[in-house]
């Protein structure tokens, strides 16, 4: 389960599984962390050595518990985090905002206000100054909420860095609708392989608001936060501004990220208590305060990074098995994780005031605990290891390379170092420290033709493209 910080900086999101996390990160964990762990221990791991404040909220059945970590530690013992949200610090939740947009779509579908296969062209007919290209007009709500609509990360070729934050801040609705008329899809026409898009999710939220004759922020208030009593989940802070945990990126202070047209993608601020209130309502299912929309929003709609995605909710776990639902986010000064485990009735919220807080260590540990891999080494003839050497392609940008050194099979992801693999069965290997399993596939003549990487409830398939691989030196 890898969470790549550079990718987060570019896309303001988080993927549970993209490939292998370096083993060193896993071995640095002081304690095994699960959803049953002390929230204070989770908070300490999630903040690491970074500056700032980090609050963890855990829901177990009907009971909530909170833990907090500070760096530097205050001179006097800080007041304990209480369930009363008015006592809790606030954070930007970044791309976890998309969960709210997905829930709004689920509610609108349940109410018959829109259909998943309604298109952008249909829903915006007569509302734009310039006509949309046919391919853009054909994108559906289903494709927007699952990132399969071929939408770019942001408008006008922006993919990351200062330009991304600048566009978040600068785009009002006029600029946003103007950008839609000139948007360039990543393929000739949808659907596409899922690729994360802030623009697409913002477009979804703005379309729902237009359809219902209101604003996205008002929809969130009227349909989610007010009915659930989430009084500290807001876009505009008003008199709550003093409660925002001071924001950092490493050791540097950061300003808050205010946005207008991109609000449905990343604009909300919230507390751990409010996010657990939302979690409880979703876990309650159709009989809870959100009604059937709570079930609908978790329903898988498309494939996403080796697993599935529902209504902007990432879904991990085997078909017919235990599922984990989550989203994560990062802004210039905050980093966030929201996770549900319906099979155990548990939820986890991690809110940190440092964009570089190592939340990936928490995700890795929870993934290992929920989807363990065998750890017992099975002896293998070293001569057979040559069967697995070579390059295996996952997609255009990512490969897995296997090489043999000193009688051990090693693996590396594109652009990373090698990790040693432990044989655990016939054509099966593991990196047990990070809960990853690799199963090789054989084809004609019993030759190895592919490999499947399973980690954290996801599966990525790769096909063999070359038997040549650079052998690392001792």
Automatic annotation (TrEMBL):
Residues 1-28 form the signal peptide. The keyword DNA-binding does not apply. Residues 51-351 form the Beta-lactamase-related domain. Keywords: Signal. PANTHER family: BETA-LACTAMASE-LIKE 1-RELATED, PENICILLIN-BINDING PROTEIN. Belongs to the beta-lactamase family. This is CubicO group peptidase (Beta-lactamase class C family). The lineage of its organism: Bacteria, Pseudomonadati, Pseudomonadota, Betaproteobacteria, Burkholderiales.
